[in-house]
Amino acid sequence: MGTISSLGIGSGLDLNGLLDQLKDAEREKLAPIERQIKTEDTKITAFGQLKGALSKLQDAAETLNSGDLYSSLSASTSGDSVGAAADKNAMPGGYQINVETLATRGTLASGNSTGDPTDEVAASAQEMTLSFGSGPDKTVAIEAGSTLEDVRDAINADEESGVNASIINDGTGYRLALSSRETGADASISGFSFDGDATISADDALVADGGTLQAGTDASLTVNGIGITSANNQVEDAIQGVTLNLKEEGESTVTVEQDTLAVREAVTGFVDAYNDLKETTGKLTSFNAETGQAGELNGDSTVRMVESSLRNVVGGMGNAGSDFSMLSDIGISLEVDGSLSVDSDKLDDVLSSDQQALSDFFAGVDDSDGFAARLEGSVGQMLSDNGSVNGAISSAENRIDSLGQRYDRMEQSVDRTVARYRTQFSQLDGMVAQMNQTSSYLTQQFDALSQMSSGKN
Fold first, then answer.
1. Could you tell me if 220 and 233 are in contact, meaning their C-beta atoms sit under 8 angstroms apart?
2. Average pLDDT over residues 316-322
3. 3 phi and psi angles, rounded to 5 deg
4. Hey, what domains does the chain have and what are their CATH numbers?
């Protein structure tokens, strides 16, 4: 029996449509696996959110666990003449600053000018020597045929020239203008010369003599009456561990004190990170009774373990060597809903009066871990390669791999079944087509016999 390539042609039946319906019905067997894979993918995404929230809490705990945080100093200023920044070497104290002069850059313009900056000023290759206040001379190579613009560009291209060059028009011609790259008297440009024939006309050499010179100056200031000079306006270690940024002439007061703001931000940062984590776990494990909608990790044991471990740390006692024993002693309370709240007045009182005790509570004392170290360790264990969170992610990934293999096997089974249906339908189509042909032939024969019988009569 011949094979019919297009189902239904021989029989006139809609076998293709029927085969499509059977194929769709068979593929429905794949739907449960697809839903399971999607569920596991959703869990992996949810665990990623949990992992991110835990990482932020770990970072906040790490900040609180640093002993340097509680010994850090800040510098504040009153007045507009200076800005100040303190490092770990600074010492608490107050300082009266009087800025008498700011450090300036030296400038120099050539004493003569050319009518066009594109006119040649150096017929031969030569060196230009730049002189400075008390610093060493610098040399710049000038190529043959250089114009005033070329001289400018050669100076600017040389990182060691010590000056920036430009061209100015004084109304009668174009002059070479130089500005020291650094402030201070030693770095101030004071002159320039050439060892060749650098001229702006046939008999007029390009010279600094007679030019406009503004000498650079050192900054001058007093700190508590002690005179200080500086080549630049950023003065380091005039006050130990403090950098002064001179802004203008005048008087200012610099106060160096414990940086309570940094500690406060670290404490509130921990509270915010903990509450963000609490909000994240709440969403992931939520259940809406009205809609029946559940969070991605509703009922998941990993989340319950995370929440339980954190409650034990947060509700536990502090370091035995600290004056504080619980978070509530420093103004942090555990609310009924599991979140943390801050009593700002109580925390500020602790920060201003007993910062060492706060350091002992969070960072530990006498080689004993403080609250922050225990929290950091607990979260670190959860996030480790063998920890509960990564373990849950790995389990979900393994289930996806297993489901994927099951899906492939099921899909192959479906394809074989559909192929078998196609073969059977093709055979049916051929059989019906043959039967139709036989029926048509017999009908013709019967019609012929009938006509013959009628003719005899």
1. no
2. 61
3. -85, 135
4. 1-72+259-445 (1.20.1330), 73-103+219-258 (no CATH), 107-214 (2.60.40)
**Which DSSP state fits 4?**
P
Count of other CB atoms within 10 angstroms of residue 81? 21
98-125 per-position pLDDT tens digit: 999 999 999 999 888 888 999 888 888 9
How far apart are alpha carbons 409 and 411 in whole angstroms? 5
Q: Which letter does DSSP use for residue 289 in this model?
A: T
pLDDT tens readout for residues 274-285:
999 999 998 988
Output the 3-class SS for 31-67.
HHHHHHHHHHHHHHHHHHHHHHHHHHHHHHHHHHCCH
Q: Give the contacts of 406 (CB within 8 A, at least 6 positions apart).
A: 33
Please state the φ and ψ torsions of residue 306, each to the nearest 5 degrees: -60, -50
Residue 448: exposure state from Cβ atoms within 10 A (0-12, 13-18, ≥19): exposed
The one-letter amino acid code at 189 reads I
pLDDT of 4 > 50? The answer is no
- What is the model's pTM? 0.62
CA distances from 265 to 71, 168, 234, 259, 344 (A): 15, 52, 28, 10, 12
**Edge-to-edge strand order for the sheet containing 163-169?**
163-169, 174-180, 107-109, 213-214
DSSP class per residue in 319-345: -TTSS--SGGGGTEEE-TTS-EEE-HH
Which residue from 103, 100, 98 is spatially nearest to 223, judged by alpha carbons?
98
pLDDT confidence of residue 2:
41
Confidence category of residue 94, pLDDT binned at 50, 70, 90: very high
Torsion, Cα 19 22 27 29, to 10 degrees, reads -160
Residues forming beta bridges with residue 258, ordered by sequence position: 73
